[in-house]
């Protein structure tokens, strides 16, 4: 038996057992081998990564009541709450939780739109390796922020997700910002950019981070450090945070500021057209941004930590 035939048989046996629910005796008769050999092949499907067993411990959350309450307040489809931790560890834990959630809901033909950021990158890095998901597509929702932030850029996050599951990553060849609104209009009309955003809008689900108020934002450090002060258009009174690098006000609407007129990212009204919009974010500096995104119906699934969730419930 050739290597390709051997692999094909392993996939067939795994499908019959795990997807169609056939017993080992039935599989043995179907593929004309012994039952003991079926058992050995099933072990091999796990050893070779064809089958991956995932224990969804998130279904036994100790924060179930809190999750239900938060979902009810903001009319969310689902809330996943994890234990709070220090800031450095928190992003990784949230990313792991997001990876587990995605592995539970993802289907072989899904298209997933992806933003950028540390927590979203952690979700990709911790996404369990899957097999037979070559038709899954990952599409970036925002332009790139330059070499300093290359590992957490949307393109790179999409590539990492695709490499973990054998899917396909779409590339967006665009910077995160341009010099003026006129330039943005020209860029967004280019077919190689427009087509990516069109595909992103048509996705079955989106995974996004939510940034905090501008003073804490990665965007501020990279582009607006000399513009954010108490009296600026980016003041805490005017801005709650950012989502897909669009700044939003406290009602969850697109904020009126010069950055939003120049940013190359998915329009928030287009984001709302994606059926399942998953936000992964947590921390006291991001509470206002998360609350605003929930009020504006920008997301309908939230993955966060306990302390953040309690602050959101308390309003």
In short:
Helices cover 43% and strands 12% of the residues.
Architecture blueprint of SSEs:
Blueprint: H1 3-19, H2 24-31, H3 35-47, H4 64-74, E1 78-82, H5 87-105, E2 111-114, H6 118-125, E3 137-140, H7 154-165, E4 168-169, H8 181-189, H9 191-201, E5 205-208, E6 210-211, H10 218-224, E7 241-243, E8 246-248, H11 268-271, E9 276-280, H12 287-295, E10 301-305, H13 306-314
Parallel strand pairs: 1-10, 2-3, 2-5, 3-4, 5-9, 9-10
Antiparallel strand pairs: 6-7, 7-8
Q: Note the main sheet.
A: 7 strands, parallel
How big a fraction of the residues is strand?
A: 5-15%
- What does the overall shape look like? globular
The ordered H/E elements are HHHHEHEHEHEHHEEHEEHEHEH
Q: Gyration radius, to the nearest Å?
A: 22 Å
Number of strands: 10
SS-based class: alpha/beta
| Uncertain regions spanning at least 5 consecutive residues | none
Widest sheet, order of strands: 1-10-9-5-2-3-4
What percentage of residues falls in helices of 4 or more residues?
40-55%
Distance between the termini: 64 Å
Tally of helical segments = 13
Average pLDDT across residues? 89
Keywords:
315 residues; three-stranded antiparallel beta sheet; seven-stranded parallel beta sheet; 12% strand
Detailed description of the structure:
- The protein has 315 residues and is of the alpha/beta class.
- Helix content is 43%, strand content 12%.
- A seven-stranded parallel β-sheet has the order 1-10-9-5-2-3-4, sandwiched between helices. It has a three-stranded antiparallel β-sheet with strand order 6-7-8, covered by helices on one side.
- The termini are far apart.
- The model has no long low-confidence stretch (mean pLDDT 89).
